[in-house]
Specification:
Keywords: Membrane, Transmembrane, Transmembrane helix. This protein is mainly alpha-helical. Helices cover 56% and strands 7% of the residues. The protein has a domain at 3-104. It has a 3-stranded antiparallel sheet. Helix 1 packs antiparallel against helix 2 (75-102). The protein binds zinc ion.
């Protein structure tokens, strides 16, 4: 299964490759990032980027540019924006999972869990104390009744 097929029911919309808005005379190229921070993220870049042109955008921003420049119209706008936002959310979710696995956000999470378990232990101790007190009171009353019974019998 390709990663894009799980993002959206209707699948990947057609994303145009436009002439660079910087008037470089060349088409924008589609690339897939392989950096540690953004693995699999799609971006669009002018071949002249870094050479006097600064056209470089992640897919979602590129779709927004297409919409703004009216390369996408009508229902295609809704489809492409919805799809690119779903895709971005999915990619960001994966990034978060990866960071969580790497232990970057381990601190607050485990602390919260520890507090919760401490609270649970506290509740169990309170429950145990209540049982002990209850049993103690019951024993005292039985002793008292026994003493009173003996008292009356001796009478
Ligand atoms: Zn350019």
């Amino acid at each position: 299964m390709s990663p894009s097929s799980s993002f959206h029911g209707r699948g990947r919309p057609f994303i145009h490759l436009i002439d660079c808005p910087g008037a470089c005379g060349s088409f924008v190229m589609k690339h897939v990032s392989s950096t540690e921070d953004h693995p699999g993220w799609v971006y669009y870049r002018c071949p002249g980027h870094g050479n006097g042109c600064n056209f470089w955008h992640w897919e979602r921003e590129y779709v927004a540019i297409l919409v703004k420049k009216k390369f996408l119209t009508g229902a295609n706008v809704v489809d492409a924006i919805g799809w690119s936002e779903d895709t971005r959310e999915e990619l960001e979710r994966r990034n978060e999972q990866r960071r969580a696995r790497a232990g970057f956000i381990r601190g607050p999470c485990s602390e919260e869990r520890m507090n919760a378990s401490l609270l649970q232990v506290g509740r169990q101790i309170v429950l145990l104390l209540k049982i002990v007190v209850g049993v103690g009171v019951l024993l005292c009353m039985m002793c008292l009744m026994l003493v009173m019974k003996l008292w009356y019998c001796n009478d």
